[in-house]
Amino acid sequence: MSATIRDVAKRAGVGVGTVSRVLNDHSAVRASTRQRVLDAIKELNYVPSQTARRLSSGKTMMIGLVAPFFTTPSVVERLRGIESVIGESDYDLTIFNVESEDGLRDCFQALYGREKADGLITISVGPTEAEYLRFQNANMPVIMIDGDLPYLNRVSVDDTFGGLQATQHLLKLGHTRIGFVSDLDKERLGNHSTADRFLGYQQALTRAGLEVDNGLILAGEHGRHAGYEMGFRLLFQVEGRPTAIVCTSDTYATGVLQAAYELDIDVPYELSVIGYDDIEMAKALNLTTLHQPLFESGVLGANWLLDQLAGETTEMEKRVLATKLVLRGTTTRPVS
Amino acid sequence: MSATIRDVAKRAGVGVGTVSRVLNDHSAVRASTRQRVLDAIKELNYVPSQTARRLSSGKTMMIGLVAPFFTTPSVVERLRGIESVIGESDYDLTIFNVESEDGLRDCFQALYGREKADGLITISVGPTEAEYLRFQNANMPVIMIDGDLPYLNRVSVDDTFGGLQATQHLLKLGHTRIGFVSDLDKERLGNHSTADRFLGYQQALTRAGLEVDNGLILAGEHGRHAGYEMGFRLLFQVEGRPTAIVCTSDTYATGVLQAAYELDIDVPYELSVIGYDDIEMAKALNLTTLHQPLFESGVLGANWLLDQLAGETTEMEKRVLATKLVLRGTTTRPVS
DNA sequence: AAACCAATTGAAATCGATTTCTACAGATTT
DNA sequence: AAATCTGTAGAAATCGATTTCAATTGGTTT
User: What does pTM read for this prediction?
Assistant: First the structure.
C-alpha cells in the first residue's frame, strides 16, 4: 500500500537504520546523506507507521483522559482546555468515561499496561494510592485536575477560599441565614472539592460570629433536578427560611432558581442565590457565581503532563489556580 | 516485564501459533491443548499486547470521532450517546477536535492511513467526496451524525420538518411577522442542517399564504453573543418588529432573550421565542424549543459503525430521527 | 607511514503478536 | 496393506519501525 521505511532506504541507497536516524534525528547523519533520505521520503510521500513505531519504541503517543464527562458541564470546559494543548502536540487524546466507582477501577485496570496511553490526565476522579504506584512502576505520569489526592501531581482551585468568597459576599450584603446546597456526603470518586467549599462556608460564618445551622445545609445527587429539590426544601418553610443560598455548582443554582420561581419568591430581593463554576448558562441566567478557571486548568494540566512525558521530573506538587467572584443579578442585600 | 505470547507457548509446551489460535479461536485446536494454553495464560496472568496485535493484524481497535466539540453543547450530548456504546465495546474512542476548515482537512489527512482509527464518526462535519473515497479505499467506514452529505452513511434529524414544526407552532398561535436567527450563510464544514431548517421555515410561511420577508432573516456567527446581536437588530426597530423569532439553536435563543430583556420587551407577551436542540439550558430558561434526539443520534451512529466494522455492509443510507416540539414558557399568542 | 580515533552507516536483532506453510498423526478409503 | 484425507500444531515469515553492534571511512596524531 503506502511506502515503508525499507522502500525509502532502497530509494536513497542507504540502510533502514539511517532512515530511522534521520526521522528521529538521534545520532549524527552526514548532511549529504540526510538530504538524500529526505528527498526519498518526499518522492515516495512516505509517512512512518505509528503502529510500528509504537511496537518498537514502546510508546503509544496517546494520552488517556479519565473523567466523568457527563455529570457536569464543567468537565467539558476543562476538556476543551486539555484538547487545545494536546491537539497541538504529537499526542492523540483517548477518552475514558467513568460513571461509577466500579467503572473507574476497571478503567485504571485497563490502563496499567501502557498499551493505551503513555500518560494520564484525570478530572475530578483519581487512582487510589496503590493504583497510582502501579502507574509509577509502569513509568506513566498522571496529572489530576480538580482533586486533591496528596500522592498525585494535581491542579486544583482553592475551593476552600472559593466557598469563603461566596459566603463572605453574602455576609457583607447583610445576610445571616445562608443555605448551602451541595453533593457533600457523596465525596465519591475521590473528589474533595465540595468538602473544601463547605469548609470555606463554615469559616466565613464562624469568622462573622455566626453559628452553622445544620438545617440550612443540604446534600443530594448531581444535576439540576436535585438542586431544585433541595431548593424547594429550603424555601418551602416559611419561618426561618434562608435569605440567601450558596450552591456548589451553577447547575444546582438553576434548580434553586426554579424552585424559587415556583414558590413565587423573588430573586434577588427575597432570595439571593450564588452559584459556582461560571458555566455558559450562568451568563444567560444572570447568575452571580464563583468563576473557576476551568479552561485554564485543562491547559495547565495538559502542559504539565507533556513536560513530564518529555522527561522533566518535578517534586510531587499541587498547583493551585484562583477562583474569582463574578457579580451578576441574583444577589443583593436582604429586605429587612 | 509482563508475559508475552512466547512465554505462554513455552509454559504450555506448544508453539506461539497455537496460542494465537486459542486467543482468536480461528481454526480448530484440540480441546485438551486449548485447555493447557488457557491454563498457562491464567497462570502467567497474560494479557496480549494491543500494540503488537495492531501491527500484525492491521487493526487499531480505535474509533475516531471528528467534531467541532466546543461550538455547541449539543455536540457533547451526541458524544455522550456515542461513548455509551463504544465504551461497552472492544474499541476505544479517540477524539479529534476541529475548529476550522483547514483543521478539518488536516484531520482527515492524518486519518487516511488507518493508523489512528479503524472507522470514523463525524458530527456536523464531514469529508468531501474525494476524501471519502480515500477512506473507502482504505476500507474505513465513516458515519456522519447531523449532516446530509449524500455520499455518506448518515444519521440526521428531519431538519426541514423541524423548521416547519417550529414555524407552524408560531403561525398557529397567530403570529405573522416571524424572524429567523441562524448561521445560515455559513454552511461551512459540510453541515446543511441550518439550510434545511430554513427550508421548513419557508414552507410553513408559504403554506400559510405569507410572504417571506428577508428583513426578518438574519445569519451570523455561532454562539450566544451572535444571537444577542441578531436579536437586537431584529427587535431594535420599532415599526415592523417581529412578534416571534425562530432560532436555529437554543444558544441563539438565549442571546435573543437577553436582547429582548435589555430592550424591555416582555417575553412571551410581546415576543415569542422558540429555540432548537433542547439543551439543558432550555429547561432552565423555560424555553420553548424543538427537541432533537441528540443522545439517541450518537447511540444510533455508534452502533451502526460497529456493525460495519463487524463486516456488515448496507446500502448507502440516511437514517432519520424525528424532532419533537417542546412547549414551554417563551411562546404564546401575540397581543393584538 | 603506522597507529589511532571519531564520525557514519549498514546489517541484523528486536518489539509481540498474526498468519501462512508444512509436517505429522490418526482415521478412512480402496 | 497401501493410499488418501482430515484435523492439529509447530516453524518461520511478516507487519514496520527502533536500536544495538560491528565495520568502514576519513582525518589526526605521532
Answer: 0.78
